[in-house]
C-alpha cells in the first residue's frame, strides 16, 4: 500500500481510489497546475482534499454554493480534518474559529465563496494562512456563456497571480469550449495538466422518443415509476407549472420548480425532494447544481435540452447511487425551432452562437442516432466504447424502430436545411 492509499483509507475510510482519482491527486500533490474533468459523482472533492492534507500550509477552496461548502466542511471536520469556511452564512463564532485556526497555522482547507475575493483583507488573510494551493470547484462557473456563470470567478486568475501558487480546477462540464475558457481565465492560457475521465454512467438507461403528446408520454413514464423520485425537465417556466399540475391531478406527488419562484419557495421544494420518497420535481434547468440526492431513479425531458452537455448533466442527476436509473427525452420539430431561436435571439456574439448551434446539432445527432446512443454520447466526450445494451436502440424491437422512421426523416430534413 502506498502512502497515499494508506492516507485515503485512514482519513477518508475509502479502500481504493475511484477510476481516475489517483493520477489527479498525484498531479495536484506535485504542485502542477491541474484541470480535472470528471462526471458528477465521480469524486472530485477528494482530488483536492487529499492533496491539501499532504501538502504544507493551507489550501483555499473556491466553491460557488454556500450549501456545498458547508456540507464539505462539516464532512471534513467529522473526519478530524481542520477545515473551515468563510461565507455570508457564517455565525460570528464560526468566523472567529476560522481566523483563530489561520493564526495558529493549523487550518488545512479554507473554503471561500468567490464574492469573498473582492473583500479587502482577503489576500492578506490568505498570505497569513500560508496558502500554498488554490482549488476551484465547479470551475465552469468561470465560463461567461454557461448558465452557471459567476462574475466573481473571474477574480480567481488575479488571486493565482498574486499568491503565485499552483491552481487545481474541477468541473463536470466537458466540452472543449468551456475547457478553453477555463484555461484562459484561470491559468492565463498556460496549459495545465489535464485529466478527462470516466464519463460512462452505465446504470443510466438512455432513451429518446419523438414527441407526440408530451403530457401523455411523460405521465405514462411517471406512472410506470410511481413512488420513485424523479425529475422532469421542461424548456419553459410556464410548462413546469402546467405539467406539475397535470401530474398531481393524476395522483403523483409533484411540484414545479423554476427561477421565477422566490428563493424560499425553491428551498422548500429542494428540501422536500431531498427527504420525501417519490416526489416528482418538474423543473427548468434552474434545478440542478447542488442537488445531491443519490437515489433519483429517473429523469425525463418533456422538451429537448439545449445541448448535448446539458443533456448529459441533467440525466446524470439520476442514479448517483449506482443502482439502475431510467431516462426519457422527448423531442420534435417545435423543440428544434425553439432551441434554435433561443440561440439566435440571445445576446451572445456570432462565434458563440454558431458554437451553440453546433452543440444543439450534436444533441440532435444523438436523438437521431441509429445505433447505440451511449456510444454516440461517449464519443462526443472523447471516449470509445462498445454497444451498451442499456439504451433504447440497443434493446428496442426493430418494428417499433421502423414505425418512427417517417418522423425521423422529417426531422432530418429540418436539420439539414435549417428551415424552421
Ligand atoms: P463530485 O464532486 O465529482 O460530484 P463528490 O466529490 O461529491 O463528487 O463525491 C461523490 C461521492 O463519492 C461522495 O459521497 C464521496 O464520499 C464518494 N467518494 C469519493 N471518492 C471515493 C472513493 N475513492 N471511494 C469511495 N467513495 C468515494
Ligand atoms: Mg463536486
Ligand atoms: Zn446502447
What can be said about this structure in brief?
Belongs to the helicase family. RecQ subfamily. The chain is α/β, with parallel strands linked by helices.
Helix-strand layout with pairing:
Elements: H1 3-12, H2 21-29, E1 34-37, H3 44-54, E2 58-62, H4 66-78, E3 83-86, H5 92-104, E4 109-112, H6 122-128, E5 131-136, H7 156-163, E6 167-171, H8 176-186, E7 193-196, E8 204-205, E9 208-210, H9 214-223, E10 230-233, H10 237-249, E11 254-257, H11 263-275, E12 280-283, E13 298-301, H12 308-315, E14 325-331, H13 333-345, H14 350-367, H15 373-380, H16 392-395, H17 398-403, H18 405-417
Parallel strand pairs: 1-6, 1-7, 2-4, 2-5, 3-4, 5-6, 8-14, 9-14, 10-12, 10-13, 11-12, 13-14
Helix pairs in contact: 2-3, 13-14, 14-15
Q: Which kinds of small molecule does this entry bind, naming each only once?
A: adenosine-5'-diphosphate, magnesium ion, zinc ion
| Total count of helical runs of at least 4 residues | 18
**Which structural class fits the helix and strand makeup?**
alpha/beta
Q: State the total count of DSSP E strands.
A: 14
Give unreliable regions as ranges.
none
The outline comes out as globular
Helix content: 40-55%
Strand order of the largest sheet: 3-4-2-5-6-1-7
**Biggest pleated-sheet summary:** 7 strands, parallel
Query: How big is the Rg?
Result: 22 Å
- Strand content bin: 5-15%
Distance between the ends: 60 Å
Amino acid at each position: 500500500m502506498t502512502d497515499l492509499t494508506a492516507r485515503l483509507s485512514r482519513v477518508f475510510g475509502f479502500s481504493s481510489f475511484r477510476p481516475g482519482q489517483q493520477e489527479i491527486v498525484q498531479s495536484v500533490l506535485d504542485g502542477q497546475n491541474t484541470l480535472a474533468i470528471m462526471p458528477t459523482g465521480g469524486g472530485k472533492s477528494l482530488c483536492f482534499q487529499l492533496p491539501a492534507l499532504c501538502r504544507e500550509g493551507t489550501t483555499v477552496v473556491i466553491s460557488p454554493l454556500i450549501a456545498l461548502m458547508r456540507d464539505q466542511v462539516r464532512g471534513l471536520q467529522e473526519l478530524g480534518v481542520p477545515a473551515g469556511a468563510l461565507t455570508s452564512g457564517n455565525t460570528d463564532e464560526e468566523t472567529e474559529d476560522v481566523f483563530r485556526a489561520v493564526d495558529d497555522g493549523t487550518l488545512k482547507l479554507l473554503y471561500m465563496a468567490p464574492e469573498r475575493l473582492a473583500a479587502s483583507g482577503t489576500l492578506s488573510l490568505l498570505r497569513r494562512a500560508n496558502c500554498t494551493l488554490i482549488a476551484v470547484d465547479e470551475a465552469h462557473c468561470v465560463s461567461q456563456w454557461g448558465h452557471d456563470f459567476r462574475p466573481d470567478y473571474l477574480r480567481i486568475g488575479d488571486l493565482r497571480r498574486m499568491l503565485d501558487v499552483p491552481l487545481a480546477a474541477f468541473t463536470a462540464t466537458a466540452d472543449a469550449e468551456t475547457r478553453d475558457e477555463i484555461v484562459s481565465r484561470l491559468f492565463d492560457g498556460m496549459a495545465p495538466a489535464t485529466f478527462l475521465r470516466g464519463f460512462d454512467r452505465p446504470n443510466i438507461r438512455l432513451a429518446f422518443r419523438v414527441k407526440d403528446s408530451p403530457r401523455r408520454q411523460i405521465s405514462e413514464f411517471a406512472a410506470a415509476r410511481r413512488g420513485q423520485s424523479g425529475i422532469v425537465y421542461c424548456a419553459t417556466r410556464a410548462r413546469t407549472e402546467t405539467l406539475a399540475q397535470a401530474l398531481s391531478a393524476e395522483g403523483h406527488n409533484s411540484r414545479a420548480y423554476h427561477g421565477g419562484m422566490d428563493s424560499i419557495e425553491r428551498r422548500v421544494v429542494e428540501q422536500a425532494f431531498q427527504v420525501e420518497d417519490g416526489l416528482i420535481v418538474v423543473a427548468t434547468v434552474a434545478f440542478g447544481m447542488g442537488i445531491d440526492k443519490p437515489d433519483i431513479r429517473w429523469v425525463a425531458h418533456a422538451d429537448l435540452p439545449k445541448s448535448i452537455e446539458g443533456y448529459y448533466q441533467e440525466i446524470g442527476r439520476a442514479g448517483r447511487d449506482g443502482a439502475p436509473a431510467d431516462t426519457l427525452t422527448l423531442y420534435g420539430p417545435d423543440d428544434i425551432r425553439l432551441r434554435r431561436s433561443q440561440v439566435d435571439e440571445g445576446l451572445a456574439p456570432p462565434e458563440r452562437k454558431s458554437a451553440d448551434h453546433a452543440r444543439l446539432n450534436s444533441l440532435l445527432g444523438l436523438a437521431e442516432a441509429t445505433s447505440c446512443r451511449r456510444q454516440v454520447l461517449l464519443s462526443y466526450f472523447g471516449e470509445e466504447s462498445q454497444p451498451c445494451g442499456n439504451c433504447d436502440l440497443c434493446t428496442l424491437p426493430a418494428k417499433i424502430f421502423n414505425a418512427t422512421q417517417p418522423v425521423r426523416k422529417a426531422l432530418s430534413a429540418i436539420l439539414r436545411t435549417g428551415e424552421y
